[in-house]
Amino acid sequence: MTNQATIHPLDDAMALQAREPGVYTGRTTQAYWNMVGPFGGITAAAMLEAVLKHPQLLGDPISLTVNFAGAVTEGEFTIRANPVRTNRSTQHWMLTLEQAGPDGEMVVATTATAMTALRRETWGVSDVKMPVAPGPENFERAEPIFRAQWLSAYDMRPVSGNFPSVWDDSGDTSLSQLWVRDVPERPLDFVSLAAASDLFFPRIWLRRARRVPIGTVSITTYFHANREQLAQTGSGFLFAQASAQEFRNGFFDQTAQLWNADGLMLATSSQIVYYKE
Amino acid sequence: MTNQATIHPLDDAMALQAREPGVYTGRTTQAYWNMVGPFGGITAAAMLEAVLKHPQLLGDPISLTVNFAGAVTEGEFTIRANPVRTNRSTQHWMLTLEQAGPDGEMVVATTATAMTALRRETWGVSDVKMPVAPGPENFERAEPIFRAQWLSAYDMRPVSGNFPSVWDDSGDTSLSQLWVRDVPERPLDFVSLAAASDLFFPRIWLRRARRVPIGTVSITTYFHANREQLAQTGSGFLFAQASAQEFRNGFFDQTAQLWNADGLMLATSSQIVYYKE
What we know:
The structure is a homodimer of 277-residue chains. With 277 residues, the first copy, chain A, is mainly beta. In chain A, 14% of the residues lie in helices and 40% in strands. Chain A contains five helices and 13 strands. Chain A has helices at 9-13, 40-53, 190-196, 203-208, 227-233, and strands at residues 17-20, 23-27, 60-68, 76-86, 90-100, 106-117, 125-126, 154-160, 176-182, 214-223, 238-248, 251-260, 265-275. Chain A has a twelve-stranded antiparallel sheet. In chain A, helix 2 packs antiparallel against helix 3 (190-196). Chain A starts with 8 loop residues before the first helix and ends with a strand. Chains A and B meet through strand 3, strand 5, strand 6, strand 7 and strand 10 of A and strand 3, strand 5, strand 6, strand 7 and strand 10 of B. Strand 11 (238-248) of chain A pairs antiparallel with strand 7 (125-126) of chain B, so a sheet runs across the interface.
């Protein structure tokens, strides 16, 4: 039993119970509820949490791909995390999230692959610098931009590419930039970074200034920060940026970058999203 | 038995034999051999071919993530393709590629997930235009840039960000652009596009003008073209572009775009690559 008075909503959503090694029971939570299911970012985070909880884990997350195969419904789910290949310094994972279907049979709602590794110090360089922007204290927290509980779990401060205020087909860009952190504040870790990689509103709503039905199909996140760099970031604001490359025949892609306030690239991410019309 | 005199080397590499539904036997080929294993792009293509060959296939490829979990060795391999979730218009796949290990036990060398879908006509727009560049006839085919058989399977015509001619740590960009097509010429399809998404030499070699050991860990490709658009592209040159975002502590990421000569975006791709030093 968890103490709802003191546990952070994100940690509450990450509460997985090991039934056997690699098999975990979790459940959806109201704090991260989207319109017809949980926020995709929180499902991605839960998949990663199953990897991080596994007794055979080697190293820290480097890459995570999560495929939203079907709706996750309210209630209990089972995550199976399988370390299919362990090398000297890298480890590869395959995962599923299942729920009981209408006839009681288990149905796969989400699939994932992940790679974890022991990192070592090497030469490095940033080829995509954080855009120059005034600090988060210069922007106001946005009101929840649509009716979804999970939006209240983030302090989002739009810098550019704001949520359209009118739906008049006047859009001309797919680029959004914002400052963002968890509400309540929470020190950044790999699961919260995985969740944050999915927090952008649909690029097509911005690009078209038109709200059409959408659903993320698959998201891939690459983690560039190690534990120490996440710890240094603490509960500070992240600078988050997303744009689309191509919208065609029912699917568009999005690329995203997340930096900490010191300009350190924490993660890069891409996703492909279904849209109607 | 295949007729080596007439079959294209790429189709030869895609020759999978169904042992049972969803279980296929293939083998590596010399034409796509890299330095210590097959070209990653051809392995990615073989995973996709297993999906396309599956009797339960729904629709065309939208996304493909391939994880290079361990070395693929010369000879036979087994691909298992499992359609874990089929919806009305989308289908989600999990795949593994296995080979017999030193003790005869089967070892997972590659994992993948894929999503296929029935596409429909919708609104669309391109937010990343093909760069303006002279046509392929204005550039010379590059000599194979390092000793790897697969390089001869492509006519690569560098436009910018060419393979360094000296290794003197003088690099200052990670962006490469080139015209490319299969050798011999071959009409573009989903598997050859999946392979082409991985044909860039390692960004770190360009960025540092230094050759360090590398290995792609995971590649994700989103397909924006449908069958008709691939057919229209035929065996013409593609304009291919890649750059890195972040190099740090042993891993860098790469984003890539592939257009046909008419400027139609065919695929966008991202990958994360291990590097030493």
